[in-house]
Write a structure and sequence with these properties.
transport; ATP synthase gamma chain; hydrogen ion transport; Pyruvate Kinase, Chain: A, domain 1; about 10% strand; elongated; ATP binding; alpha/beta
């Protein structure tokens, strides 16, 4: 009977766990929808900004702005966007592997999210700054991050600034990426990144030609417009990466919690079957004892 009591306790415990994981799955699904809508809302703005930059880059040279200045070698600064909480599968683990594979060993780091910040600190990497971002992501909170990255680059402390984040492709697919943010490549200035628009592709030749066909009049000058647009471009890039990372986090957590709930239900069925077998065996043993006693009394 002790075994039966143990199994009943295990069944009750697993049921309680299943209720928790089910609730976390529903919460993550709701947050994921909001984060995905937030990312999709920036598509039209990103399209128009990229088209203007495509046309603008044809009217300036690569030395027109310090953010376009290509530098050889030098120190690298990496913005790492991870999660504050766990229970989201291998999301942070895969991003950590990507960072170790593609980021230089002597790079410095700016972090958003507690998980990889702790991992990088334990590994002895140099941490320049850490930021906390609300959920859903406000655009205003991306500005100080972009401002810090830009100022450190313009001051010459770093010759390259990259961003490591999880790109939201679909509910089941989140792709870890390390993308160069600064210096901005003049050749790729107007290209549409995969993470701008949640899984949409890059601007093709047709889109590029359509952008160039527009008759823009730049006032006061192309260089003056560039001085205003490039910081805005960097701000929006950082913001979009934050949104993609947040959508990836909620998506991965929803999938992980659904898998945990399904496994818990499966485990409950197995425990219930084992409980019924033991209970049936106990009943059979009692019947045999009664039958044996009755025969002995005859």
């Amino acid at each position: 009977m002790a075994n039966l009591r143990d199994i009943r306790r295990r069944i009750k415990s697993v049921k309680n766990t299943a209720q928790i994981t089910r609730a976390m799955q529903l919460v993550a699904a709701a947050k994921m929808k909001k984060a995905q809508d937030q990312a999709v809302a920036g598509r039209d703005y990103a399209d128009l900004l990229n088209q203007v930059l495509v046309n603008l880059k044809e009217n300036v040279n690569e030395e027109a702005h310090p953010l376009l200045e290509q530098r050889e070698g030098g120190k690298e600064l990496v913005l790492v966007i991870s999660t504050d909480k766990g229970l989201c599968g291998a999301l942070n683990t895969n991003l950590g592997k990507k960072i170790r594979a593609e980021v230089s060993p002597d790079a410095d780091f700016v972090t958003v999210g507690r998980k990889l910040r702790q991992q990088l600190s334990k590994a002895g990497r140099n941490m320049v700054a850490d930021f906390e971002v609300k959920d859903p992501v406000p655009f205003a909170e991306a500005r100080p991050i972009a401002k810090l990255l830009t100022s450190l680059f313009l001051e010459g402390k770093y010759d390259k600034v990259s961003v490591a984040f999880n790109n939201f492709v679909s509910t089941l697919v989140q792709e870890p990426m390390v993308v160069q943010l600064l210096p901005i490549s003049a050749a790729a200035l107007g290209e549409k990144q995969d993470y701008e628009g949640v899984g949409r592709g890059r601007v093709g030749e047709t889109d590029h030609a359509a952008a160039l066909s527009k008759d823009y009049l730049f006032e006061p000058s192309p260089e003056g417009v560039l001085n205003t647009l490039l910081p805005l471009y960097v701000n929006f890039q950082v913001y979009q990466m934050l949104v993609e990372s947040r959508a990836s986090e909620h998506s991965a957590r929803m999938v992980a919690m659904k898998a945990a709930t399904d496994n818990a239900k499966k485990f409950i069925k197995e425990l219930t079957l084992e409980y019924n077998k033991l209970r049936q065996a106990a009943i059979t043993a009692e019947l045999l004892e009664i039958t044996t006693a009755m025969k002995a009394m005859e």
